[in-house]
Write a structure and sequence with these properties.
Helix content is 37%, strand content 16%. The longest helix has 23 residues. The protein is of the alpha/beta class and 346 residues long. 36% of the residues are buried. β2, α5 and β3 form a beta-alpha-beta unit. The protein has a seven-stranded mixed sheet with strand order 1-7-6-5-4-2-3, with helices on both faces. Strands 8-9-11-10 form a four-stranded antiparallel sheet, with helices on one face. It binds pyridoxal-5'-phosphate. Pyridoxal-5'-phosphate binds next to α4.
Length: 346
């Protein structure tokens, strides 16, 4: 096991965090004259629970983890930014990403003046574990892996991921934003073996709540403590906490959406596979898929004209000629297929 403290920036290790009124007195039944809140307009007049205790209890039950292994943020994007700021010194340290992948890793690193070492995935969209490990040096603090990966849609080979976890001296982040759509297990299962592992999940995709901004980092308590130490005190607002609690108590809704989306993913793949301009449909473990087509820009623009917006990924490494389709409702998907059928016969 790692001594996580060794990898933390010295100024963060020594930081004395802001202590909020809500943290200093934790009781519920009292007259609160401590935080300069307005006494009217309950419940919105009160600052939210800074550590989201009730919500974390519910999520922990759901994920079969302990609350001290869980950090909640303003989207998982917040966790990505905080992790970079905990472990990487500006102008000195680097993160490693497996290209192509989710754009926020590089943006967060760039904002913080952290070097980004991009190692291309192999042709079958798998991380090249050996190349990644060879590229690391004493300034490489974080390896970012995304599985199922965005924009390619596939899950990474478990042996490759475990090799990286076993051999890298630093933090390994596995972004599982799409794990609910995957047939594979979460890396939450190996948390007890790797205290340098951070698993990211989100309420933005399967849970259908991108608008409330709620993301999760699941890791060893050492790492969670540092995330809590440097976050904004009230990073998850009270409305978000309330809506998330309600959603969790109706988990069957999420499960139904996931199974509907998976059925529609099958439908779309079948329909697309019969179209002459479709060259390849890549296997997917997410709620979207990558499709290689002839003349991607023409198809993209044609669809925009029909008010159907897909993602043009044709300029992205290894994704030449590719469009990325998110699975919609049955009605939306039918409209998409009809439009593409018309394009074909134009
Ligand atoms: C959509 C997505 C997220 C979600 O980010 P939030 O900030 O939680 O909305 C995270 N990672 C990847 C790879 C994504 O595609």
């Amino acid at each position: 096991m790692f001594d996580i403290n060794k990898y933390v920036r010295p100024n963060i290790r020594q930081l004395k965090p802001y202590s909020s009124a809500k943290e200093e007195y934790k009781g519920k039944e009292a007259i609160f004259l401590d935080a300069n809140e307005n006494p009217y307009n309950a419940p919105y007049n009160r600052y939210p629970d800074p550590l989201q205790t009730k919500l974390k209890e519910k999520i922990s039950e759901l994920k079969n983890i302990r609350p001290d292994q869980l950090f909640l943020g303003n989207g998982s994007d917040e966790a990505i930014d905080l992790l970079i700021r905990i472990f990487c010194s500006p102008g000195k340290d680097s993160i490693i990403i497996a290209d192509p992948t989710y754009g926020m890793y590089k943006v967060c690193a760039d904002i913080n003046n952290i070097n980004v070492l991009e190692i291309s995935l192999t042709e079958d969209f798998q991380p090249d574990a050996t190349a990644i490990l060879e590229k690391t040096d004493e300034n490489s603090k974080i390896i970012m892996l995304c599985s199922p990966n965005n924009p390619t849609g596939n899950s990474f080979d478990k042996n490759k991921v475990l090799k990286i976890l076993d051999e890298f001296n630093g933090i390994v982040v596995i972004d599982e934003a799409y794990i609910d759509f995957s047939k594979n297990n979460s890396y939450i299962n190996v948390l007890d073996q790797y205290n340098n592992l951070v698993v990211l999940q989100t309420f933005s995709k399967a849970w259908g709540m991108a608008g409330i901004r709620l993301g999760m980092a699941i890791a060893s308590p050492d790492i969670i403590n540092y995330l809590n130490k440097i976050k904004y005190p009230y990073n998850v607002n009270c409305i978000t906490q309330e809506i998330a609690l309600k959603a969790i108590s109706n988990k069957h809704k999420k499960d139904k959406w996931v199974s509907d989306i998976l059925a529609q993913r099958e439908y779309l793949a079948n329909k697309l596979s019969t179209m002459a301009f479709v060259k390849k449909i890549y296997p997917t473990d997410a709620n979207f898929f990558l499709v290689k087509v002839e003349q991607p820009k023409n198809i993209y623009n044609y669809l925009v004209n029909q008010k159907i917006i897909v993602r043009d990924r044709s300029n992205v490494n290894l994704c030449e000629g590719c469009l990325r389709f998110t699975v919609g409702t049955p009605k939306e998907n039918k409209i998409l297929i009809n439009a593409l059928n018309k394009y074909e016969t134009k």
